[in-house]
Write a structure and sequence with these properties.
Distance between the termini: 128 Å
Strand order of the largest sheet: 1-2
Number of helices: 1
Radius of gyration: 56 Å
Helix content: 25-40%
Shape: elongated
Amino acid sequence: MYPEQTPHVPVQRVVEVHQPTPYPPAVAVPAPLAPVQSNAVPAVASIVLPDGRVVTGYAINPTQPEPAASKPAVSRTAVNVALGGVGFLAVCGGLILLTSFIAALTAFITQLITLAAVIFGGWIAVQIFSTRGHQGGTTVHIRKAVFKRNHFHG
């Protein structure tokens, strides 16, 4: 499964060592100053390098942070109108919820009254039509009765 381990001799390689060549230090040569220009055009600076080359470019001034904006991005009137609209919509939504809550509460109370009337009416009907004995009441059996001038004659 595994190849047999065979001893091997490390390979000898030739290594070249490079030593860095030091450069002589650069001598700072003051750059000739350009005449001062107006604020619209930046000043151009030129530097002469030790080998004689001239590099010309614009001087980089550090950027100044912008002052705080004196005028907001959106006018205060627009913000007030928008907040007023949001408040108006919130009030309208609350009134709609209140109205639906009152309607649901009214329907619930109506159903409770109807349920009480049905239960009470059923209890009255059971009392009237039940065939249980009437121990405390008076029972009158009418077989032949004659009514004359609103008087009962039995």
